[in-house]
Each structure stands twice: as structure tokens, then as C-alpha cells.
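Researcher: I'm preparing a figure for a lab meeting and need a structural model of a single chain. I don't have an experimental structure, so a prediction will have to do for now. The sequence is pasted below. Please return the structure as C-alpha cells so I can convert it later.
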Amino acid sequence: MGSENLPQKEYIPIRIIWYQTWWVRFIAICYVVFLLALVLTHHIQMFPLSMFGELSLSLGQSPLYLLAIGLGGIVCLSMLIRTRYLIIDRSKALIYYQRSILGYSVYYFVEVLSVQLELDMSKALDRLKIEKLYRVYLKLPKEQLLLVREAWGEEIAFSLAEKLKKTFAVEIENLQRVGRKRGQDIHLGRYTLEKELSHGGMGKVFLGKEKASGHSVAIKVLPSSLAANQDYVENFFREAEILKRLSHPSIVGIKDVGQDGDVYFYAMEFIEGKALDDLVKDKVLSIEQSARFVLQVALALDYIHGHNIIHRDIKPSNIMSRKEGGVAVIDFGIAYDFSFLLEDSRLYGYYIEVSHYKGTLPYMSPEQLSSQSEIDHRTDIYSLGVTFYELLVGKRPFRGGSQSLMRSILGWYPPEPSKINPQVPPQLDAIIMRAMEKDKSSRYQSGASMANDIHRWLHNLPVQSSRPNKIKRMWRRFRGFFWWLC
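Model: Understood. Here is the structure written out cell by cell.
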């Protein structure tokens, strides 16, 4: 079917990556190296008596020399970076597939059956620190796959797959995994890895399945870049030990701790839901739902603090919403266990040194940024207040660069949430501003007391906290302004 016979419709060209087999690429690369050797030996007079030198001198006297270089370069480039194009029909699950053969364009009228995603996990065991490679294919009849794009991020790959799904009105197939050989699964202990869920400075989390039961689990793995350091290994297993001691409906549960060769991991319950930061971006949280979520987290913090543990990294991305309702606190990577102070007083000085400046800057308490004040469980209360603020307003109370953020956290008070979102009631203003007090003795002294105030608001009862009066608000503004000047 020639191009002149194509139906007159709106088509969308999509670039298709042309896959070359390894031996074709090898021949092309060798040819390029050979041509470069000819050029160097002729023009720079390197090794004039060598075989390459004599050959380049003989070719240099012939006009075929330049012609060979030009044609060879064109052939190599076409072999290495050749592309194909598809013309997509928006109205049906059809494509017009164009392939150029000796200058003649041939079009193929092909039906798209589905969109297929493929995840390259070939280096999951020995190079977990490297981002995973995703491939997006169009699946055609007779098991043909046309590669649309390669992406190094899951978000980009799934976004493209969703667009193709809408264009062709087809389904997205289950994610296919590529191991050391195509289709080979990656195993860690008694679990099989499927895809990466998230990653942070202290590890990566994968979706996995238990081989015996088939149950889905979340598997946190210590990256190979950190596994060589014994201190990081000890901290990793300390995190697992902390989770073992905690059993609460609003805290992620741990199932197993293990080691597979030089890979350290532990398995947790898999929470089917979104992190609160994603819900903030989607703007789907109501004020009441946000309050109920924060109430559950406050009760979970009260439970955590009762076990002599501080989380130190409370933020929306570390709070998962459950599909069945409720939330769960996750990521205890920098949590601190006060029990070590009771067992060995020598660690107390070490604790004071490493606890400051640990956390996520926009959610850190003033005492986390200042070595003049000791850190205790009330730092989590402050971070939860910042989180509550963001859930209601849609943005953080303090923004800007690192230096600006630090100065704001230490000396400036943000506007009350109701100043930005008029739908926020004054009672929640009072709860949030008290949780975010600069002086930790003025905050809620426990997660339970903060949860109690939220509970009272949810049941139309007066809360125990009150908004600061005009004099106190003026004093805060003056104090913040003076802090910025100094």
C-alpha cells in the first residue's frame, strides 16, 4: 500500500527505536575504528612504515579515499542510529507502519493488540544502585513487538503507556521482567522481585512475591554502594529491629529479614495505596479526611515514642494511605532508638552528634537545625504539624533554598493555614500552629494530646489549643524580622 493510498485522516508520527543485533553493531564499530586509523596515519603520519601507514598513503593518492570515508560513515551511522516511524490512527487501534527499503516506502496496515511494558532487572542483584530501564512496546499480531521508547524512570514509561492506551483504546499488559536472560526472575531469598516501588538515600524498595504463598510484599534492599560500609549495614539491620518491636495498625509491618550473598534486605507488608504527597498533588484530600489521617499518625507516633523511638523523618511521602482506609507510617531509615542510651551511656554523645541535621529539611524541627537544643520525641510532633499544614494548604509552610529554609524554620512563623485556604477552620489553625511552635515545651507534649484535639474537632467539640492573640502574633512577626536581620 503506497503513501498515496493512505486514508485522509489525522495521523501522529511516533519515533521507534531500531534495535540492531550485537554482531551488526560490532561490525559497524570495527569499521569506524578502521576508518579512523586510516585518517590518523595519513594526516598525522603516525607509524608511517606500518601496514596502516602504507595503506593510507596509497589510498590518499586516490579520490576513492574520501568517497570511502564518506560512504562508510553514512553506512555506520545508519546501522547504529537507524530509526523507524509509525503513523498512528487516533480513531482505531490501527497503525500504518512505514519501512524504507532501498528508497521505496512500504506501508503496513497493522492492528495494535495491546501496550506492553518491560522492565530490565538484569543487574538487580549486583547493581541495585542503578536506575532500572523500562521499555514500552506496541504488541502486534503474530507476537510482534515494536519498541516505542526506552525510559530510565517508571513515571515516564507509565505515562507514555497510558497515552498509547488512550490512543489505541487497548489495554496495558502486565509488566514483563527481563533478568540475566529474557524472562528470568530475580530472586532474593524466598522472594521474587517484580519492580521498583521507590528509592531513597538509605535503600530501595521493590515489589516482590513470596514464592510459597504468592503473597505480595515490599522488599527494602540496601544498595551495593552502601553495603560495603559496615556502619550502614548495622544501621540497616537496626531499622529492621526497630520495626520488629512495633506492631500497630498505622505502622508498616515487617515480615522477614535476610541476606542473599552480599545483598541485605528485609520484607514488609505491601501497602496498596498512595503516599500522602501524591494525594496532595492530586488535590483529592478533603479537610476532614486530612484530619483523620493526621489523627491516626499522631496515635502511631504516641505508640512509637512509648517504645523509646523517634522517627525523625515524618513527612507526607513517608505516610501511605491504605486501599481499605487508614494510613501507615513507613521508612524508619533514620529512626533513633533511645533504648541504646539505657544500655550504653557511651552512645549518648554519639547520639547528640548525629541526630542534628538528619531528616528532610522542609520538615525538620528547629532543634534538628540547632546544636543548642537536645532532640526528643517532640521533633516528630513538629514534623507532623508541617505535614498537616501541607495537607490542608497544598504546599509547605516554608519554601526556598537551603539557607532560606533554615532561617525560616529557626526564626520565622508561617501564615496560618486559613490565610491561604479560607476553608480551614480556626480550630485546625490552632492545632497546627501549636504543633509547629519553635519552643518544643510549647508544643503538644505527646502524639496522644494532639490526636485528642483533632478528635474533639471531628466531633464538634472545643479544642484545648487556641489561636495566638494579636499581641503574640505581632511579637512573632517582630521576632522573625529581627531574626532575618541578624
